Amino acid sequence: MSMDWISSPAGALHGEVAIPGDKSVSHRALMLGAIAEGATHIRGFLESADTHATENILRAMDVRIDMPVRDERIVHGVGLHGLRAPGGELDCGNSGTAMRLLAGLLAGQRFDSVLTGDASLSRRPMRRLIEPLTAMGASVTAKNSDLPPLRITGGQTLRGIDFRSPIASAQVKSAILLAGLYARGETQVREPQPTRDYTERMLAAFGCRIEFEPGKARLHGDHTLRATDVSVPADFSSAAFFIVAATLLPGSELRLMQVGLNPRRIGLLRILRAMGADIVEEDTLKSGGEHVADLIVRHAPLRGIEVPAEYVADMIDEFPILFVAAASAQGITTIRGAGELRVKESDRIAVMTTGLRALGIQVEETPDGAMIEGGALRGGEVDAQGDHRCAMAFAVAGAMADGPVRVRDCANVITSFPAFPTLANRCGFRLSA
Q1: 284: domain range?
Q2: CATH no. for residue 210?
Q3: pTM flag (> 0.70)
Q4: Residues 255 and 270 both lie in one domain
Q5: Mind listing the pLDDT tens digit for each residue in 119-130?
Q6: Residue range 99-118: average pLDDT?
Q7: Same domain membership, residue 241 and residue 220
Q8: Mean of the per-residue pLDDT values for the chain?
Q9: Which of 118, 317, 383, 387 is catalytic?
Q10: What was the pLDDT predicted at 314?
Q11: 347 is known as an active-site residue
Q12: Which terminus of the chain has fewer Cβ atoms in its 10 Å neighbourhood, N or C?
C-alpha cells in the first residue's frame, strides 16, 4: 500500500506531546517475558506494525499474550525451554530488530524455524549476525549467506564465545547475548564503540546474572529468567522529530513527556545542544533501569558543526532528522563514520541527500556521511522510499519550507510511529495524507 503526505509550512509549535512507548524496549520486553517464568506485565507498550510482528511470532510459538487495554500486555512466560515449533514461517515484516534478536533466541531451540520479512527487510545484511551465531554452534543459513529469509536448524549444542564485533550494532550484540542464554559456558561481546544497552539492562531486570559496561557484556548460559513488570518509556527516536521541529520553528515551545534517555541513545541530544539547541530536562526519574525525563524544547538558531565520530553509534536512528536540522543550520555540518546508514530500511544517506537537494539544499554525499550546507528549504517533492524515519524527517522539512512538500511512500510509518500525523497536527504541523 502506497501513501503520500503533504507537509505544508507551519507556524510555532506548542503544547505537551505524549510520545508512544519505546520500540526497542517493547520488543525486548515481549521476548524476555516469553522465555521467563511467570507473567510479565508491560505498560506503555508501543502499538506498531514492528512490535505486533514480534507479538504474533511469539504467539505462533505457543506464548499466551493478553491485552487488558491498549498499550498494555501481559506475557505468560513459558520458560527458557518452553517455546514450541511454529506451524509455518515467522514473518518479521519490516522489523530488523525482530529478525536479528529472534535469530539469536531461536538458535538455541530444539525445533527448526524460518524468519521472513518484507521486501525492505529482505535486502538487509544478516551475515554480520550469522557468522558469530555459527561460531557458537548454531545452524543459520540465508540467501547468498547474507539476506533473509533466515533458516534456523534446531537441536544444536551452543557454546559460549568471546566475540569481538567488527561493527557497532546493538542488534548483533543482543542476538549473541540471547543465544548465550542457551549456550554452555560464558558468552562475551566486545564492541568497537559502545551501543545501546537495552538488552543488558532488561536481562538484569529479569534476573539474569549479566555483567556489562560500555562496549562490553558477558553472561553464562542456562539462567532462569523471572517475570517482572516493565514500564516502557517514551521512544527517544520518535521524540527526535518533535525536538528538531520545535528547535527550528520560531516561537515554538514543546514539552515532550517522560522520554527515555538511555545514555547510549541520546547522541542526537548532545549534537543538537552543541549546535545551539535549547533543550531542558525536567522531572527526571529512573524507571525499570532507564532514565526518563520531560524534555522542554524551545526555538533556537542552530549552527553547523562537525559531528564527533564517538556519537555516531548513539544516534544511528536519528540521522535522517539530523540531516534536516543541518539543512536549517547556519554553516556546514559534516557527518562521517555513519556508513551503517546505507544498510538500514533504506540507504538513508542517499535518500536524505537526494531529498534535501530537491528542496534546494546543497549536500555533498560521501561513502559514510555527508556535508550539508544550511540554507532556505523550498517546497517540492521527495521520496522516502518506504523508510519511516526518512518520511517523518521530510515532514519536518515541509514544516520549515517556503511551500508544501509532497513526501512520497510514507506507509511504513506504521512500523514505528503510526500516531505521528495525529500528534504532529495537534501541536501545530500542517500535515495531510
Answers
A1: 5-21+233-432
A2: 3.65.10.10
A3: yes
A4: yes
A5: 989 999 999 999
A6: 98
A7: no
A8: 95
A9: 317
A10: 85
A11: no
A12: N
